[in-house]
Structures are given as C-alpha cells and as structure tokens.
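ok new one. same drill as before - structure tokens go in, u give me an amino acid for every spot. 353 of them this time. try not to just spam alanines like last time pls lmao
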C-alpha cells in the first residue's frame, strides 16, 4: 500500500512540474519510457497510421514517425484556428461578443433571402464557429447544423479580411505569425496559403511538430510559457461545449448565398455533429444513439480533424498528451478510435511494467 501511495505522490508531482515545460526554439526530447509511455504501443500507432506524426507528453517530444518537419495542408483541421482568432478578436475589442452580427462586417448578408425573412442578416459569429449559420440552406441561423465549407469561407474572409483588415496576401505576416505561431515558436513557417494565393486561401499548411504546439496551448488552457495567449475561459469554452443532439442536421434545401461565394473545400451538409462538435473542435461527446465518439479514449479528449481523420491533432488532458498526424491511412471514427486507444494503452502498459 505504501509503495502505491508513494508512486501516486511522485506521479502527481511529476505532472505538476511538467505544467511548466514548453518547447523553445526546438522541442526538448525524452524517451517514451522517461514519461511513462510504452514504446511498443507507440510503434503500433505509427504502423496503423503511416504518414507523419508525433507524440508530446508533459511538454516533451517523445515519439515521432515519418517527417515531423514537413509542412502539409491539414484540410478541415484548420477550423479551430479560425475560432481561436475569433476569440482573440473579441478579446481585443474588434468584435463585441459571440452574439455580434456578422453582417456588421459583411453587409451583403442583409441583401439575401428576402423570402426567408432576411434570415442571413441574423447570422452571429457563434453560428459561424459552430456551423449553425445555415448559410446557403433554408433553415434560420441556429436552427440546424450544416457542416459547410461555404460557411467556413465566409468565416475566414469576414474575420481576417474585414475584422483584422488584412488580405489573403498579407494574412500570414499580419495575423497568423505575429498573433500566434511566432509566439508559439513554430519551427516550420506555417501558412494560411497552403496551395497559394489563387487556390483556396485560408487552408493551413503546417508540420506535425508545429501543430502539436497549438495542441499544447489548449492543453494548458491558453497559457504559454509565462503569457496567457488566449483567455482561459475561451480555451475551455472552445473545447467543452458540444452542440446538443436536439439540434438537427440540416435538411439541405438550398438558399441564396452572396454572389460568387467561394468554398474553402467542399460544399454543404457534409456530416452530422454527433453531439461532439464544439466551436469547430471535435470532442469525445455522445451521439443521438448514445455512443461515445471515441469509446476507447478518455472522455476529455478533443481535437482538430481533416479529411475524415487522415489529418489530425488530438489533445488528451488526462494523459497530459498531444498527438498529431498527417497524410495517414486513418479514416473515420473507428480508426480514429483505434489510434487513440493505442495511446491510452501506451500509458496503461507503462504503468503496469
């Protein structure tokens, strides 16, 4: 009994100390064993995934596969980054609050769908972040969930071009780098121009080791090495408020959008929220059938996902762990669950050794 108590005491002490660990110019390296992870389970994760990836625990880089420095598009995993800059704009007084109307910055919304009672004039920033704006479908804002890359293009363009008063050409140097990635010390020059200025600006290209820094920022509730980069309340709200299952998926009946409206990727009505969509993050919620999103992961897990899981960054707070992968074979909730299961087993197996 005394041995167990001593082990728990030193384990808790190790975690309290680790809260002060952040990467500098480069990540400090430790072996998986040094931070209580089983190497074999991590090898199984890399074999399942292929592609590129890394694992951070207690603030240390402890495992990687493929090319951790390669800058690659992350597809829809960029969406929580938009929410981050939305919260930052509210902090800085550029936007009143989450209920502020988007039409204050994009007045063309006031000219749409007169037959639907000018519904788009009532789109709030909260609706864009949660994909309940119903932009391009007939429901009113807040009535339904529409996973839409027209919604996300409207979100990006209005936020970065109108609120931050930047441009596609300058958004990296004026917003992305000075307000976030430089402060995180990113090594591989992340960019919102993954495919260049003429091909879906707003897509994020980033290395897995740099994406892991973003995960560590949220694991630490917006705090980074002596500075609160985003208010704790916003970091917690972003990753802990899934849409209720009472909000239906849109029926998908089309409505007018701004003429020439671009998409940042696909179209409308791509998926349901499964009780797990929180301000553009995916969390480990419970769907309409009572099934947890990732049944073999801890309930507090949350992450950014693109291309149905092929590209992702996941935070696992109970394990003080961040994992990031890209260009992988992982596809769909079941394979995502299998990947996170191996990480959970990596910690459990090490504790039993």
């Amino acid at each position: 009994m005394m041995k167990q108590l001593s082990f728990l005491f030193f384990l808790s002490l190790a975690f309290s100390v680790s809260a002060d660990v952040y990467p500098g110019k480069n990540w400090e390296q430790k072996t998986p064993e040094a931070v209580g992870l089983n190497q074999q389970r991590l090898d199984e994760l890399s074999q399942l995934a292929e592609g590129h990836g890394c694992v951070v625990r207690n603030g240390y880089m402890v495992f990687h596969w493929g090319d951790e420095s390669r800058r690659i598009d992350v597809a829809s995993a960029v969406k929580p980054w938009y929410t981050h800059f939305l919260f930052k704009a509210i902090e800085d007084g550029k936007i009143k609050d989450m209920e502020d109307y988007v039409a204050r910055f994009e007045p063309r919304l006031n000219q749409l769908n007169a037959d639907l009672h000018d519904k788009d004039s009532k789109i709030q920033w909260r609706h864009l972040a949660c994909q309940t704006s119903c932009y391009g479908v007939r429901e009113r804002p807040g009535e339904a969930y529409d996973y839409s890359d027209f919604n996300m293009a409207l979100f990006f363009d209005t936020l970065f071009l109108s609120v931050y008063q930047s441009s596609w050409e300058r958004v990296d140097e004026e917003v992305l780098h000075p307000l976030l990635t430089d402060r995180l010390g990113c090594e591989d020059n992340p960019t919102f121009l993954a495919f260049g200025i003429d091909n879906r600006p707003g897509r994020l290209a980033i290395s897995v080791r740099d994406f892991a820094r973003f995960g560590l920022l949220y694991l630490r509730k917006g705090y980074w090495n002596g500075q609160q980069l985003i208010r704790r309340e916003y970091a917690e709200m972003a990753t802990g408020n899934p849409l209720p299952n009472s909000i239906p998926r849109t029926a998908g009946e089309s409505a007018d959008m701004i003429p020439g409206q671009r998409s940042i990727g696909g179209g409308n009505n791509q998926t349901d929220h499964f009780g797990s969509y929180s301000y553009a993050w995916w969390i480990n919620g419970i769907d309409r059938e009572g099934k947890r999103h990732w049944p073999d992961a801890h309930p507090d897990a949350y992450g950014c996902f693109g291309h149905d899981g092929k590209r992702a960054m996941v935070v696992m707070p109970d394990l003080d762990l961040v994992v990031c992968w890209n260009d992988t074979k992982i596809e769909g909730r079941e394979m995502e669950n299998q990947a996170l299961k191996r990480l959970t087993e990596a910690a459990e197996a090490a504790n039993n050794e």
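Confidence is low (pLDDT under 50) at residues 1-18. and btw Residues 332-351 form the longest helix (20 residues).
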